[in-house]
Amino acid sequence: MAVPVIAAPSRSDGPRRQRSSGIWPALAAPGIIWLAACFVFPLYVVLCIVFGQIDPLFRTPVPVWNPLQWDPTQFTYVLTHIVGTHGVFGPPLLRTAVYVLTASALCLLIAFPVAYYVARLSGKRKGLLLALLIAPFWISYMMRMFAWVNLLQNDGIVNKVLTFGGLFNVHVDWLTGQPVVVILGLVYGYVPYMILPLYAGLDRLSQPMLEASRDLGADRFSSFWRVTLPLCRPTIVAAVLLTCLPMLGDYFTNDMLSASPKTTMVGNLINDGVQAPGQTGQAGAFVMLVFLVALLPMLYYIRVTSRGSEVST
Amino acid sequence: MPQPTSRRQFLARAAILAASAPTLGAFLQACSKNAPSSSQPTMTIAAPDNPVTWPIADDNKPIADGLAPEKGATLKIYNYADYLSPQAIKAFEDQYAIKIEVSTFNDGDEAITKLRSGVDFDIYNANYTEISRLVNGGLLRPLNHSYIPNIKNVWPGFTNPWYDQEWRYTVPYTIYTTGIGWRSDQVPADIGALKNPYDSLWDPQYKGKTAVLDDFHSAMAMVLLRQGITDVNTSSEADLKMVGEQLNALVKATSPKVTITMYNDLPAGQLGLAQMWSGDIINAQSYLPEGTGPEILRYWFPSDGKGMVDNDMLVTLKGGKNPVLAHLFINQMLEPEVAKENFSAIGYQPPQNSITPDSLVKEEFIPENLRSAIVKPEYFDTGYRLLELDPTNEAAWRNVWQAFNAGGS
Predict the structure, then answer these.
(1) Is B321 helix (H, G, I), strand (E, B) or coil?
(2) Claim to verify: residue B328 and residue B359 sit in the same structural domain
């Protein structure tokens, strides 16, 4: 097989690039402006609403822009109602954590073998399989949830299958407050977001490293356990984060598949709060809580990836 | 290699940024339209025993008489989904060679928030629990009665209603009761014959089949009525605490859905028993799957009229660009034929003189099993009204509702 020869970049490029150094900040500027305008500023607005006032007539939020005039009433209302005798927000927060962790674990269980197979074992069919993996993205999330509503409703296919054509008398009300169904919805909705990053990571796994482990006497299992998995850790963390974070703010899955207070997640609290006059500040407080909680795994991710690059170099 | 920003450069830039930050605050302050006003406005709350004539501001007079309708315009209507007959829209479009654009909302809260943001809808479907805010907030345009001769067609009680004396801003649109709807195939018991029909929603045997209205006031008022408390606008702390406890018990007992789509979920078989508006159970007939007849639908509202009875209104908005067309459209909706067709399309009864409980029965417009969903004029004398709540009380109500929605342990 002929190996294409790629000319090595000439070393003399270096100094010339240094001279035109103004171009790099210029290239970074759109990204920084974007971050400032669409992330830092909105975050500040959320803070101004959380610590702001409420219009006395319409009860709509009135943001207070000056941090010195911030009023913590709404934020403390939320904080003091998480645990204790008035702890109404504790259960949904805990529930959200349980749902999201369970759903992410299930996603990983489903997505890892699939991604592993496509990336490493599928051979010639890789392109086709990859296209099929991306296919769910073509259909809107709402349509996919509607499909589940159809399948799970009382006279839907799931109940029909469970009765084995009328053999058994099975009658499950799937769509009224079943935590299992909400978790299933989350898993189903977010599993493609897990497969793609996993695929990307597994696909560029260092082949020589794996060969070396086999040459040095590791069997298939220990080679997977001691080489593949550790090499994949940043990928797995990234993939889990990519699914966890949107799940944390998800309210739609629950609205479609349950709509019962029994399965309320923090996303629903935020959504309800935004729509209820006078409670926008509380919704903002939940946004901040989710933000803080999401920050921790992000920091962990940064640590894992930076350590990963240390290892590889 | 790109030259990294030196520490000195970084510090210099940070200093510039820090120096500009305070001006940013002032800039934003200038941008905000609705700075908190220092004085707490007192809210006038209309009630049957406290009829209110809303003032007409000098800068917001009704339109002049005899204006020609706007040409080639797009009339913008802001309404609940499935709450306006497509045929009525089409007829009006054809008559005036204009377009009608209907935008929808899920509840009044969402609607008011959007209306405040300065949109140019012409017509809005309002409820009298919003009227004080709508008028005082300067969102409504007063009506010019000369464009709306069809007001003569509505029940006399609505030509000078307590919530808007002299109908300065509103015309009545629909009337409805809030009761309980059920399917006789899923719920064989005659709910209406129970000693306290509201109890059925707390009955564990219907777990997973029930729903309550996703409207804090209607749902919480139902809890009050269940306990025999008829002040459905109470500001009593003890009452609200009781409502909160009852709602928690409700979640534990039957885990109800909280939704306003009963008119679809009940006929589809997802729900067997639900708190419902009378218009929704009538509308539910057209959502039944093939092979299921309307005879399975049932509705209960206290036959003595001692339940929740309300009405919606049509109003014209100050921000609308087509005030003349808006008046004409409202007038059209009060036309007996249009009102009746609209009734059959949306299930909500209009308070029209030509539509009486007797006529609905005689013409078999409403099937036998749903007679209880017909709204009778006398209900408005005996029934209980959800009124606008003052801001402090509303906050207390909403906190209870929010705790319920959070789902408890």
Answers:
(1) coil
(2) yes
The token pair at A297 is 């795994």
Token code pair at residue A90: 């504790």
Q: What is the DSSP letter of A89?
A: S
Q: What is the mean pLDDT of residues B115-141?
A: 92
ipTM greater than 0.85: no
CA distance A295 to A288: 10
Rounded to a whole number, what is the distance in Å from the CA of B126 to chain A's nearest CA? 15
* Co-location of B155 and B193 in the same domain: no
Nearest C-alpha neighbor of B77 from the set B254, B255, B248, B329: B329
pLDDT of residue B42: 66
The pLDDT of residue A17 is 52
Question: CB neighbours of B406 closer than 8 A, spacing ≥ 6?
Answer: A88, A89, A91, A92, A261, A264, A269
Mark whether B288 and B233 lie in a shared domain: yes
| B391 touches A: beta carbon within 8 Å | yes
Which residue is it, tokens 């729900």? B271
How confident is the model at residue B41, as a pLDDT?
55
For residue B142, what is the domain's CATH number? 3.40.190.10
Instruction: Note whether A273 contacts B270, CB cutoff 8 Å.
Output: no
| Cα–Cα distance, B84 to A181 (Å, whole number) | 35
B304 within domain boundaries: yes
Q: Do both B131 and B242 map to the same domain?
A: no
Residue B141 to chain A, least CA–CA distance (Å): 18
* DSSP strand pairing (B99-105 vs B123-127): unpaired
- pLDDT above 90: percentage of residues in chain B: 76
Residue B34 lies in a domain: no
State whether B79 and B158 are in the same domain: yes
Average pLDDT estimate for A234-263: 90
Give me the torsion for CA of A97, A99, A105, A106, rounded to 10°.
Answer: -170
pLDDT digits (tens, 9 = 90+) for B371-387: 999 999 999 999 999 99
A59, A60, A89 member nearest B394 (Cβ): A59
User: For the segment B212-229, what is each residue's pLDDT rounded down to a tens digit?
Assistant: 999 999 999 999 999 999
Mean pLDDT of all residues in A166-186: 84
B343 lies in a domain?
yes
Q: Give the distance from residue A301's alpha carbon to the nearest chain B alpha carbon, in angstroms.
A: 25
Domains and CATH numbers, chain A: 100-312 (1.10.3720.10)
Determine, yes or no, domain membership for B7: no
Q: List the 142-201 stretch of B: residues with Cβ below 8 A of A.
A: none
Closest by Cβ to B257, choosing from A56, A259, A277 = A259
DSSP annotation of B43 reads P
- Locate A292 and state its tokens: 């803080």
> Which residue spans within chain A are E strands per DSSP?
53-54, 61-62
Q: Quick one: pLDDT band at residue A172, thresholds 50, 70, 90?
A: confident
A-facing residues of B in 88-107 (CB < 8 A) are: 106-107
Residues spanned by the domain of B136: 74-174+311-367
Q: Are residues B272 and B260 in the same domain?
A: yes
